[in-house]
Amino acid sequence: MADKYLNYTGLQYYHNRIKNEFADVDDIPTKLSELTNDGDGTTGSKYATETYVDANGGKIDKIKVNNVEQTITDKTVNISVPEDISDLNDDVGIQTANDVASAISTALANGNDPYQTESDVDDKISTAISSVYRYKGSVATYNDLPASGNTTGDVWDVQDTGMNYAWNGTGWDPLGASVDTSTLWSSVSGQANSLIAITTAEIDTIVGA
Questions:
Q1: Fewest C-beta in 10 Å: which of 17, 28, 54, 113?
Q2: Cβ of 156: how many Cβ atoms within 10 Å?
Q3: 197, exposed or middle or buried, with CB in 10 Å at 0-12, 13-18, 19+?
Q4: In this structure, what are the phi and psi dihedrals at residue 80, rounded to the nearest 5 degrees?
Q5: What are the pLDDT digits (tens) for 121-172?
Q6: pLDDT tens-digit readout, 6-17
Q7: Spatial contact of 62 and 68, defined as CB atoms under 8 Å apart
Q8: Which of 204, 209, 207, 200 is CA-nearest to residue 6?
Q9: Which backbone phi and psi does 95 adopt, to 5 degrees?
Q10: What's phi and psi for 157, nearest 5 deg?
Protein backbone atom coordinates (compact mmCIF):
# COMPACT_ATOMS: atom_id res chain seq x y z
CA MET A 1 0.00 0.00 0.00
CA ALA A 2 1.37 3.45 -0.91
CA ASP A 3 2.16 5.96 1.85
CA LYS A 4 -0.47 8.68 2.41
CA TYR A 5 -0.52 11.98 4.24
CA LEU A 6 -2.85 12.87 7.16
CA ASN A 7 -5.10 15.83 6.28
CA TYR A 8 -7.14 18.02 8.68
CA THR A 9 -10.30 15.89 8.47
CA GLY A 10 -8.40 12.70 9.17
CA LEU A 11 -6.44 14.31 12.04
CA GLN A 12 -9.65 15.55 13.72
CA TYR A 13 -11.20 12.09 13.40
CA TYR A 14 -8.04 10.47 14.78
CA HIS A 15 -8.02 12.92 17.75
CA ASN A 16 -11.61 12.04 18.67
CA ARG A 17 -10.84 8.31 18.48
CA ILE A 18 -7.83 8.64 20.80
CA LYS A 19 -9.79 10.90 23.18
CA ASN A 20 -12.55 8.29 23.46
CA GLU A 21 -10.04 5.44 23.94
CA PHE A 22 -8.52 7.17 27.00
CA ALA A 23 -11.63 8.81 28.43
CA ASP A 24 -11.02 7.35 31.93
CA VAL A 25 -7.51 8.75 32.41
CA ASP A 26 -8.75 11.01 35.26
CA ASP A 27 -9.26 7.92 37.44
CA ILE A 28 -5.49 7.45 37.96
CA PRO A 29 -4.49 8.06 41.65
CA THR A 30 -2.40 11.19 42.20
CA LYS A 31 -1.75 10.90 45.98
CA LEU A 32 -0.11 8.24 48.14
CA SER A 33 -3.14 8.38 50.43
CA GLU A 34 -5.26 7.06 47.54
CA LEU A 35 -3.14 3.90 47.33
CA THR A 36 -3.27 0.78 49.54
CA ASN A 37 -0.04 -0.09 51.35
CA ASP A 38 0.10 -3.88 50.98
CA GLY A 39 3.77 -4.25 51.92
CA ASP A 40 4.54 -6.23 55.08
CA GLY A 41 8.14 -7.27 54.44
CA THR A 42 7.26 -10.90 53.71
CA THR A 43 8.58 -12.86 50.77
CA GLY A 44 7.21 -11.53 47.51
CA SER A 45 6.25 -8.09 48.87
CA LYS A 46 7.84 -5.12 47.20
CA TYR A 47 7.39 -2.68 50.08
CA ALA A 48 7.72 -2.96 53.86
CA THR A 49 6.00 -0.87 56.51
CA GLU A 50 7.99 1.30 58.91
CA THR A 51 6.85 -0.95 61.77
CA TYR A 52 8.27 -4.03 60.04
CA VAL A 53 11.62 -2.30 59.38
CA ASP A 54 11.97 -1.21 63.03
CA ALA A 55 10.99 -4.66 64.33
CA ASN A 56 13.37 -6.61 62.09
CA GLY A 57 16.49 -4.46 62.21
CA GLY A 58 16.15 -3.26 58.66
CA LYS A 59 18.10 -0.09 59.35
CA ILE A 60 21.76 1.05 59.34
CA ASP A 61 23.44 0.86 62.75
CA LYS A 62 27.05 1.43 61.68
CA ILE A 63 28.80 3.36 58.93
CA LYS A 64 32.38 2.60 57.95
CA VAL A 65 34.81 4.36 55.62
CA ASN A 66 37.65 2.14 54.41
CA ASN A 67 36.70 -0.29 57.18
CA VAL A 68 36.99 2.44 59.85
CA GLU A 69 33.81 2.88 61.87
CA GLN A 70 32.50 6.46 61.93
CA THR A 71 31.08 8.16 65.00
CA ILE A 72 27.35 8.84 64.85
CA THR A 73 26.30 11.93 66.84
CA ASP A 74 22.70 13.10 66.85
CA LYS A 75 22.00 10.91 63.76
CA THR A 76 24.82 12.68 61.90
CA VAL A 77 27.93 11.11 60.35
CA ASN A 78 30.80 13.28 59.15
CA ILE A 79 32.83 11.62 56.38
CA SER A 80 36.04 13.38 55.37
CA VAL A 81 36.62 13.31 51.61
CA PRO A 82 39.99 14.41 50.14
CA GLU A 83 39.72 17.75 48.35
CA ASP A 84 43.30 18.16 47.08
CA ILE A 85 45.40 15.93 44.83
CA SER A 86 48.17 16.18 47.43
CA ASP A 87 45.89 14.33 49.87
CA LEU A 88 45.83 11.26 47.58
CA ASN A 89 48.40 8.59 46.82
CA ASP A 90 49.74 9.09 43.29
CA ASP A 91 49.56 5.56 41.88
CA VAL A 92 49.18 6.57 38.21
CA GLY A 93 52.07 9.01 37.75
CA ILE A 94 50.26 12.36 37.57
CA GLN A 95 52.42 15.04 35.98
CA THR A 96 52.91 18.34 37.82
CA ALA A 97 53.38 21.69 36.13
CA ASN A 98 57.13 21.40 36.72
CA ASP A 99 57.16 17.91 35.17
CA VAL A 100 55.44 19.20 32.01
CA ALA A 101 57.70 22.26 31.72
CA SER A 102 60.76 20.05 32.09
CA ALA A 103 59.54 17.60 29.42
CA ILE A 104 58.92 20.46 26.95
CA SER A 105 62.35 21.97 27.61
CA THR A 106 63.99 18.59 27.05
CA ALA A 107 62.10 18.02 23.79
CA LEU A 108 63.07 21.45 22.45
CA ALA A 109 66.70 20.95 23.47
CA ASN A 110 66.78 17.68 21.55
CA GLY A 111 65.44 19.29 18.38
CA ASN A 112 61.94 17.80 18.68
CA ASP A 113 60.15 20.95 17.55
CA PRO A 114 56.44 20.64 18.53
CA TYR A 115 55.43 23.63 16.39
CA GLN A 116 54.09 23.41 12.83
CA THR A 117 55.50 25.62 10.08
CA GLU A 118 53.34 27.24 7.40
CA SER A 119 54.47 24.54 4.99
CA ASP A 120 53.50 21.80 7.47
CA VAL A 121 50.03 23.30 7.83
CA ASP A 122 49.57 23.70 4.06
CA ASP A 123 50.55 20.07 3.48
CA LYS A 124 48.10 18.80 6.10
CA ILE A 125 45.26 20.94 4.66
CA SER A 126 46.00 19.74 1.13
CA THR A 127 45.97 16.13 2.28
CA ALA A 128 42.73 16.61 4.23
CA ILE A 129 40.80 18.19 1.32
CA SER A 130 42.26 16.02 -1.42
CA SER A 131 39.09 13.93 -1.66
CA VAL A 132 36.47 16.60 -0.82
CA TYR A 133 33.70 17.04 -3.40
CA ARG A 134 34.22 20.07 -5.69
CA TYR A 135 31.53 21.19 -8.15
CA LYS A 136 33.07 21.61 -11.60
CA GLY A 137 30.05 22.40 -13.77
CA SER A 138 27.47 20.63 -15.96
CA VAL A 139 27.43 18.60 -19.15
CA ALA A 140 24.59 17.55 -21.43
CA THR A 141 24.93 13.75 -21.12
CA TYR A 142 26.96 11.14 -19.25
CA ASN A 143 29.13 10.61 -22.36
CA ASP A 144 30.18 14.28 -22.14
CA LEU A 145 31.90 13.78 -18.77
CA PRO A 146 35.68 14.43 -19.08
CA ALA A 147 37.72 11.25 -19.44
CA SER A 148 41.04 12.77 -18.33
CA GLY A 149 42.47 15.59 -16.25
CA ASN A 150 40.16 14.75 -13.33
CA THR A 151 40.97 14.98 -9.62
CA THR A 152 39.37 12.79 -6.98
CA GLY A 153 36.31 14.68 -5.69
CA ASP A 154 35.47 16.50 -8.96
CA VAL A 155 31.67 16.65 -9.40
CA TRP A 156 29.72 17.27 -12.61
CA ASP A 157 25.98 17.63 -13.18
CA VAL A 158 24.53 15.64 -16.10
CA GLN A 159 21.60 17.67 -17.40
CA ASP A 160 19.58 15.04 -19.26
CA THR A 161 19.13 12.89 -16.11
CA GLY A 162 19.64 15.49 -13.38
CA MET A 163 22.23 13.15 -11.81
CA ASN A 164 25.52 14.34 -10.27
CA TYR A 165 28.68 12.26 -10.75
CA ALA A 166 31.92 12.37 -8.74
CA TRP A 167 35.36 11.22 -9.90
CA ASN A 168 36.64 8.47 -7.55
CA GLY A 169 40.12 8.32 -9.01
CA THR A 170 39.37 5.77 -11.72
CA GLY A 171 35.78 6.45 -12.83
CA TRP A 172 32.54 8.37 -12.30
CA ASP A 173 30.31 7.44 -9.33
CA PRO A 174 26.64 8.57 -9.25
CA LEU A 175 25.84 10.64 -6.14
CA GLY A 176 22.10 9.95 -6.11
CA ALA A 177 19.21 8.18 -7.77
CA SER A 178 15.75 9.24 -8.89
CA VAL A 179 12.76 8.32 -6.70
CA ASP A 180 9.37 7.34 -8.13
CA THR A 181 6.65 9.22 -6.21
CA SER A 182 3.86 8.56 -8.70
CA THR A 183 2.09 6.22 -6.25
CA LEU A 184 1.62 9.13 -3.82
CA TRP A 185 -0.37 11.26 -6.29
CA SER A 186 -3.67 11.00 -8.08
CA SER A 187 -6.13 13.12 -10.04
CA VAL A 188 -8.93 14.38 -7.77
CA SER A 189 -11.91 16.33 -9.12
CA GLY A 190 -10.12 16.85 -12.40
CA GLN A 191 -7.01 18.32 -10.73
CA ALA A 192 -3.77 16.49 -11.49
CA ASN A 193 -0.96 15.96 -8.98
CA SER A 194 -3.11 15.80 -5.83
CA LEU A 195 -1.78 14.02 -2.74
CA ILE A 196 -3.75 10.94 -1.64
CA ALA A 197 -5.23 11.49 1.85
CA ILE A 198 -5.49 8.67 4.39
CA THR A 199 -9.11 7.60 4.93
CA THR A 200 -11.00 7.34 8.22
CA ALA A 201 -11.39 3.61 7.63
CA GLU A 202 -7.61 3.29 7.44
CA ILE A 203 -7.33 5.25 10.70
CA ASP A 204 -9.80 2.81 12.27
CA THR A 205 -7.48 -0.02 11.21
CA ILE A 206 -4.48 1.70 12.85
CA VAL A 207 -6.25 2.63 16.11
CA GLY A 208 -8.38 -0.51 16.27
CA ALA A 209 -12.08 -0.79 15.50
A1: 28
A2: 21
A3: middle
A4: -80, 125
A5: 887 777 776 668 888 999 999 999 999 999 888 999 999 888 899 998 899 9
A6: 788 888 888 888
A7: no
A8: 200
A9: -90, 130
A10: -95, 130
